[in-house]
Structures are given as structure tokens and as C-alpha cells.
Write a structure and sequence with these properties.
3-stranded antiparallel beta sheet, BirA Bifunctional Protein, domain 2, about 375 residues, about 20% strand, 2 domains, 14 strands, 9-stranded mixed beta sheet, alpha+beta
């Protein structure tokens, strides 16, 4: 009598009479139910339905049977194969769901939970103040313009009316990079004024921009850094004057320092790219180890400014007989030190996590004029 065999690794009996279909099916179903994962289930499938599997071996015996036996046994064997295949498919669905459920449980994030009381990271004071400055000037109608840190000597100096023998061009104050193939030299921009030049070269008046960003000079002490952050403003149109400049700076100071009123005084100065040039001081009170603005009898240097030099306008393709404008600039790092009582500018760049935790800002406290600048 023909005997069907299964692989020993499945745990089935190694042989039994071919007529005992129910015994074989029960053993296969037990093996399917006991498969702990898809790999074990695949082993059962191969042992039952594979080329040399138990059910396949039964089907091979049909060739040696008479036509009547073939019709009878063929129906039984094919029905067995179909039931086994269905049982394997059902078990596979269950195993796949178990794997998916386990993965979802492991990777689940409960979005209904409140945030941690103390965030792991904080926003750097420079980034915070940069956002504050941008928010204020955006409210005053200024667009933000940007440019590269490595700049043409022509844009950084020449077009700004800075002569070849000016001290700012010397190696002791400016970082120069290697000469280009044509002999020209690029510099790490010493201010963000080249952004104003780029704007005037590609945009016709009226112009109303600020240009915040990094600048570089050969200088390092408690109040100066070789790499620092500054913002500069530029307004070009047909009617603007120093009164407009003063009003813009006053509105900026009131919003930034979050006081109701400020008092500014102007001092004549000299910058190659403005004429006349003006430096502004802000009234403050230095008593008690703090600086308070809008009161007191002390003065604090705030920013340099002036009316854009006609030669700068001409260098940038703007008719100085028709247009005029003003420019101003200040240090973002210095503003951060003043507003948030940071004593040493070098701390900004030391990446001390303790310092960042103390002076840093929550990432979700985005500065806005209506919601509050400093959170």
C-alpha cells in the first residue's frame, strides 16, 4: 500500500496509510496552528504542499490508479490540498496582523500627550534676536534681502565708495581669500552692505529692505568677535530724508526693547557710503547694575546711519539727481547682549550647553509684535 511521508522537522508522523486522509489533515492543521512566525509557516507549507510535500506525494499516486480510483481519490486529494492551502493562508493573515500590531505598539506616538515640561533643545539668543528684528522691520514695511558671505571686493568696498587706501581694506581688518584666476580677490564680507549693492543693481527704486546676516572682521575681545551678526537697512525713493530715518529707528527701539517711549540724540560722523553720516545714541539708565531704556541721564551708542552717498547710487546704476535714500546698521549680537544681559560676546560661539539652557528660548515662542517678542 502506498505511504505518504512528511518531513521530520514538522513534527508529523513519518508515515501512515494513504487512505487515512483525516489523520494527515489533522497533523497538517496542528502544524499550521503551531507555526509561531511566517518562517515556520513557510516550512509547514513546503512540507505539505511543496514538490515533495505530503499532499503532493498523495497526488503523485493518482497516476498508478485505475480510472475509477483516480476519480474517487483525486477529488479527495484535491479537496485536501485546497483546505490545507486555505488554512495556511488564514494563518499567514493572522501572523502578519500580529507582526503589524506589535510594530504599531512599539512605534506608537501618543500625540495627545502634553509636551515635556522642559524641552531638550533651545533657540540661540542670536537666532531669537534676528527673528525679533525681522518681525519689527517687516511690520514697518521692510523686505528681507540676503547675499553670500564670500563677496566681491568690488561689492564690499569699491561700489560703497571705500577708496583703495582705506584702512578697512587692509589685511589687519579684513579676511581675504585666495586670488582668482583673473587676479581679483574675494573677501569675507566685513558688513552686510554688499547685499544693499546687489539689491540696487537688480531692483529699481523704490527700495525698502533690511539685510541681516553674518559678517567677518579681524577682531576678538569681550565685545568683538571675528564672526558676528548684523543687520542693515536701506530705503531708496524720491522723497525720503533724515526725519524718516529717525522715526524708523525710534519705532524699532520701542518695539525691540519693549518700552513705551525712547529718546535718541544724533552725533555727526563719517562713513564713506553715506553723506551726511549720523550716529545715534539712546537715552538709558545704567544705575543698579542694569541698563534701562527710555529713562535716566546716560547715553548708549546704538547705530550708525546716514543718507546714501550719491556716488554709491551712481555706482549701482541709480540716478542720484532723482533718487535719494538712507541706510543704517546695527549689531545683532550687541542687541542680544543689551536686551538679555549677556556680558561677553564670546559666549555666543562657545557651544556651552549650560549657557544655551540658561539664555536659550523655547522653540515654539516665535517672536511676533502682537504676541510678544521675547516670550
Amino acid at each position: 500500500m502506498a505511504v505518504a511521508k512528511l518531513r521530520d522537522s514538522t513534527g508529523f508522523e513519518t508515515g501512515f496509510p494513504m487512505s487515512d486522509i483525516q489523520v494527515l489533515e489533522r497533523q497538517i492543521r496542528d502544524a499550521i496552528a503551531g507555526a509561531a512566525d511566517e518562517a515556520a509557516l513557510e516550512s509547514v507549507r513546503v512540507s505539505a504542499l511543496g514538490k515533495k510535500g505530503a499532499v503532493s506525494e498523495l497526488l503523485k499516486t493518482l497516476g498508478s490508479m485505475t480510472p475509477d480510483e483516480r476519480r474517487e481519490k483525486g477529488a479527495l486529494f484535491n479537496a485536501l490540498r485546497d483546505r490545507v492551502a486555505e488554512a495556511i493562508a488564514a494563518r499567514k493573515t493572522v501572523l502578519e496582523k500580529e507582526v503589524l500590531d506589535a510594530r504599531l505598539a512599539f512605534e506608537r506616538v501618543d500625540v495627545t500627550l502634553p509636551p515635556r515640561p522642559q524641552a531638550a533643545g533651545t533657540v540661540h539668543p542670536v537666532s531669537q534676536v534676528l527673528d525679533e528684528v525681522t518681525a519689527i522691520f517687516a511690520d514697518l514695511g521692510f523686505a528681507v534681502a540676503e547675499g553670500p558671505d564670500v563677496e566681491y571686493d568690488d561689492y564690499n568696498f569699491t561700489k560703497l565708495n571705500i577708496p583703495p587706501d582705506h584702512p578697512a581694506r587692509q589685511m589687519h581688518d579684513t579676511f581675504y581669500v585666495a586670488k582668482q584666476a583673473d587676479g581679483s580677490r574675494h573677501v569675507l564680507r566685513t558688513h552686510t552692505s554688499p547685499v544693499q549693492v546687489r539689491t540696487m543693481l537688480k531692483q529699481s527704486p523704490p527700495i525698502r529692505i533690511i539685510s541681516p546676516g553674518r559678517a567677518y572682521r579681524v577682531d576678538s575681545d569681550a565685545t568683538h568677535s571675528p564672526m558676528f551678526h548684523q543687520f542693515e537697512g536701506l530705503v531708496i525713493d524720491e522723497v525720503t530724508h533724515l526725519g524718516h530715518l529717525k522715526w524708523v529707528l525710534e519705532e524699532f527701539c520701542k518695539a525691540f526693547f519693549e518700552v513705551d517711549a525712547v529718546e535718541m540724540r544724533a552725533r555727526p560722523s563719517f562713513f564713506p557710503f553715506t553723506e551726511p553720516s549720523v550716529e545715534w545714541d539712546l537715552r538709558c539708565d545704567r544705575s543698579g547694575g542694569q541698563i534701562k531704556f527710555g529713562q535716566g541721564n546716560d547715553w548708549l551708542e546704538l547705530a550708525g546711519s546716514g543718507m546714501v552717498h550719491p556716488r554709491v547710487l551712481e555706482n549701482c546704476g541709480i540716478d542720484p539727481a532723482r533718487y535719494q535714500g538712507y541706510a543704517f546698521g546695527g549689531g545683532i549680537d550687541r542687541l542680544a547682549m543689551l536686551k538679555y544681559a549677556i556680558p561677553d560676546i564670546r559666549s555666543f560661539f562657545e557651544s556651552d550647553l549650560r549657557w544655551l539652557r540658561h539664555y536659550g528660548f523655547a522653540a515654539l515662542d516665535v517672536p511676533t509684535l502682537d504676541g510678544g517678542l521675547s516670550g
